[in-house]
């Protein structure tokens, strides 16, 4: 048993697996799931006319009062940069963590405790969801800005709310972009 | 709340453990057939491909080698894989499938990344969507995701043969044919499973496309670049092969890698399914299924309490948040709404118990004690389920040590599965257990004592120390997860952590093969009244004790300086 005798199997098996696992497997997967799930595999993109206006799975930055706001986002250079996902990586005692929370509280300007998911940055910086409670506290602001009854806003939120999968897995959540598309009359 | 965590958390964890066990048993039986070279239900399709590959590679599957020959195969295959990946990453700018025009990697980053994927660590110094071409992701990284896992399982197969051979009293020092094992595992186990998981994930919204990045006109009127790519096929094997290197910077927290609670459940199952199933494979191959069940039980009895603790710490959360005006202290910083605290904590435990290293939440932002759980699970040597193959062979090293220690306590000759455990096995086991521990502590000290090491630290104080400790622990144990505040893409960290990953892989793998060779040549002695049974609750308890003691005693001072100090600072307010 020498090193020489190992070169042939090493080189050839690596070459064959590169063709099979690096070429055929991802290409076959692309063809298969492209046929089975054409919309999902392309990024669940949402179009208005011919223009891509977002992805159902990727959050957008909302700061204007007439829109529902999402989680804080720590991506750079701007929040919700879906070309460079990032969390804040701030530790629990890092003053910058609470500075960000306080800035969000000031912007929300509501009385009483705020749902914690609305005061913290998501892991991806692209979280498309907030909790139902975090949506509910924003209803008065959105209704006032749009000059609409609060029930209309609540109905839009309810229509974009998902419960835990099978009642067990994950958490109940509201898709922020979907709600705002509904409010703008662009939801399809 | 029930025993420190919510009722729903118990339900989610319970469902996860039930599904894991239910799938692991039949998969374990299937893998035993593959590793023994027997026919199975996929043979009509895969058999011809397998035989063709054997022929092209000049491999005769029945021609077995001793442990040194087997090790030579592992080393030459890993070296070839490293060289190919290194060159590919250094030249990706000129290659195909690069719609975003990604540049060539720097030499230190290419070294670190190639080592990382060849050693099944998948530490990421790079951010996928801003660094890697589609070609590098699929032809470079995906291939190593498969084959590095297959190498681990092959080495495990050699160790199992070492333990189970000689029952027929025919002298041999042969442990198997590395090339046959490696090729069979890739074709018959990893590829079919990856295809199933790819389709399942794509149904949930994981993307699979070669389109260039999209640009969306957002509702507030700005342009949003949306990174795309062939993600699903890589995601599947990233989870199954205990690799963990994400397509995107934020790994499985990214909605395109992990869009729904169901995709999260599938990915969490994929993390542990092969390492857990290999316990049952082991039981079958040594002809005593109780032995496999015992090891699975030991792993589970460590995993569940640690997971419950992680969930509890994150639900108790960060009191600073309530003081600022939040409704609860639950620590949602760095976590995704759809997963919540429970799934983020279960994932953190699973990904570090196995040497997966993917994340669906940012560990650097965990509470200090919540973040200590994944750190400790790595420090146990990645044997609680552990990496594909490497987890169980690491665990069997602990079993050998436990048999020896228990034998000393009761004055019996240490033996395991009828093989006498001698001085040579104990020496090799000690190397495999203690060297990675030494690397962790030495490399942490090196990083902290140099300006280049200190420069990478992000969070102030004790958390900054934890970032370095976590990174080195992760590299030396081939995990790959991070306290990601650390700026690791520097020549210093790329080199240091690259060397740690190599040491962590081969200073365990090679002693394990040496043990396999030594045991293969030993006669199997019949069970007698003097034999210590190794499937009993008593033995499982001693085994857990040995693992936890080695881990905790080695690292208690370091953990006290990092997470414990940070925790005290947090509760002091």
Automatic annotation (TrEMBL), chain A:
Top-rank taxon: Bacteria
InterPro entries referenced in this protein's UniProt entry, alphabetically: KdpC
A Pfam family recorded for this sequence: KdpC
Compartments where found: Cell membrane
Predominant cellular place of this UniProt entry's protein: membrane
Membrane topology according to the record: Single-pass membrane protein
Keywords: ATP-binding, Cell membrane, Ion transport, Membrane, Nucleotide-binding, Potassium, Potassium transport, Transmembrane, Transmembrane helix, Transport
Coiled-coil spans in chain: none
Residues annotated as signal peptide: none
Subunit composition and interactions: The system is composed of three essential subunits: KdpA, KdpB and KdpC.
Record-stated family: Belongs to the KdpC family.
Role this protein plays: Part of the high-affinity ATP-driven potassium transport (or Kdp) system, which catalyzes the hydrolysis of ATP coupled with the electrogenic transport of potassium into the cytoplasm. This subunit acts as a catalytic chaperone that increases the ATP-binding affinity of the ATP-hydrolyzing subunit KdpB by the formation of a transient KdpB/KdpC/ATP ternary complex.
PANTHER family on file: POTASSIUM-TRANSPORTING ATPASE C CHAIN, POTASSIUM-TRANSPORTING ATPASE KDPC SUBUNIT
Protein name: Potassium-transporting ATPase KdpC subunit
């Amino acid at each position: 048993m020498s090193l020489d005798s190992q070169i042939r199997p090493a080189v050839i098996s690596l070459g064959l697996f590169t063709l099979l696992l690096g070429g055929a497997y991802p290409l076959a997967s692309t063809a298969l799931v492209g046929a089975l799930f054409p919309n999902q595999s392309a990024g669940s993109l949402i179009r208005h006319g011919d223009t891509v206006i977002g992805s159902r799975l990727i959050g957008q930055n909302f700061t204007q009062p007439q829109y529902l706001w999402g989680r804080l986002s720590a991506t750079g250079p701007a929040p919700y940069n879906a070309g460079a996902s990032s969390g804040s990586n701030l530790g629990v005692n890092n003053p910058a963590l609470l500075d960000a929370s306080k800035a969000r509280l000031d912007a929300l300007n509501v009385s009483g405790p705020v749902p914690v998911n609305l005061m913290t940055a998501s892991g991806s910086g692209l979280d498309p969801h907030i909790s139902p409670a975090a949506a509910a506290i924003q209803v008065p602001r959105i209704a006032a800005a749009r000059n609409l009854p609060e029930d209309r806003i609540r109905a839009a939120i309810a229509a974009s709310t998902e419960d835990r999968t099978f009642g067990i897995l994950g958490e109940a959540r509201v898709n922020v972009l979907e709600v705002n598309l509904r409010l703008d009359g662009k939801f399809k | 709340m029930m025993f420190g965590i919510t009722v729903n958390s118990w339900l989610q964890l319970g469902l996860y453990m039930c599904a894991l066990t239910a799938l692991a048993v039949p998969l374990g039986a299937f893998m035993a057939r593959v590793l023994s070279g027997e026919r199975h239900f996929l043979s009509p399709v895969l058999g011809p491909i397998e035989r063709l590959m054997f022929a092209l590679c000049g491999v005769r599957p029945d021609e077995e080698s001793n442990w040194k020959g087997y090790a030579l195969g592992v080393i030459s295959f890993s070296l070839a894989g490293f060289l190919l990946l290194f060159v590919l990453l250094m030249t990706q700018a000129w290659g195909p499938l690069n719609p975003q025009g990604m540049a060539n990697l720097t030499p230190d980053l290419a070294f670190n990344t190639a080592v990382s994927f060849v050693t099944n660590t998948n530490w990421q110094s790079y951010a996928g969507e801003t660094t890697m071409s589609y070609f590098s992701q699929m032809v470079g990284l995906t291939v190593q995701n498969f084959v590095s896992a297959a190498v681990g399982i092959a080495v495990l197969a050699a160790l199992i043969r070492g333990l189970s051979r000689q029952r027929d009293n025919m002298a041999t020092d042969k442990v198997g044919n590395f090339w046959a094992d490696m090729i069979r595992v890739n074709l018959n186990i990893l590829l079919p499973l990856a295809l199933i998981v790819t389709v399942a994930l794509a149904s949930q919204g994981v993307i699979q496309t070669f389109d260039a990045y999209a640009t969306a006109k957002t509702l507030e009127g700005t342009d949003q670049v949306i990174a795309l790519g062939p993600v699903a096929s890589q995601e599947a094997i990233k989870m199954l092969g205990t690799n963990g290197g994400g397509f995107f910077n934020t790994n499985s927290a990214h909605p395109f890698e992990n869009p729904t609670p169901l995709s999260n459940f599938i990915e969490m199952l994929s993390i542990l399914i092969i390492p857990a199933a290999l316990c049952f494979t082991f039981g079958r191959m040594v002809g005593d299924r109780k032995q496999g069940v015992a090891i699975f039980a030991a792993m589970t009895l460590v995993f569940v309490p640690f997971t419950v603790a992680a969930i509890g710490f994150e639900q108790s959360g960060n009191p600073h948040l309530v003081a600022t005006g939040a409704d609860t202290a639950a620590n949602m910083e760095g976590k995704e709404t759809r997963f919540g605290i429970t799934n983020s904590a279960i994932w953190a435990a699973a990904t570090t118990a196995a040497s997966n290293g993917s994340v669906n939440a940012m560990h650097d932002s965990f509470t200090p004690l919540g973040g200590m759980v994944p750190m400790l699970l790595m420090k146990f040597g990645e044997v609680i389920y552990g990496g594909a193959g490497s987890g169980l062979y690491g665990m069997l090293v602990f079993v050998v040590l436990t048999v020896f220690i228990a034998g000393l306590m009761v004055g019996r000759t240490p033996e395991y599965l009828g093989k006498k455990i001698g001085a040579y096995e104990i020496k090799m086991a000690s190397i495999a257990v203690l060297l990675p521990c030494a690397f962790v502590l030495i490399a942490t000290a090196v990083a902290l004592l140099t300006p280049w090491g200190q420069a990478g630290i992000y969070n102030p104080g004790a958390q900054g120390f934890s970032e370095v400790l976590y990174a080195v622990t992760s590299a030396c144990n081939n995990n790959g997860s991070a306290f990601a505040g650390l700026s690791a893409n520097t020549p210093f960290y790329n080199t240091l952590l690259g060397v740690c990953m190599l040491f962590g892989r081969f200073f365990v793998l090679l002693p394990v093969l040496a043990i396999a060779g030594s045991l293969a040549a030993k006669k199997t002695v019949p069970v007698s009244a003097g034999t210590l049974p190794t499937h009993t609750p008593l033995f499982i308890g001693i085994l857990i004790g040995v693992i936890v003691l080695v881990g905790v005693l080695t690292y208690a001072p370091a953990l006290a300086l990092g997470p414990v100090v940070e925790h005290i600072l947090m509760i002091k307010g």
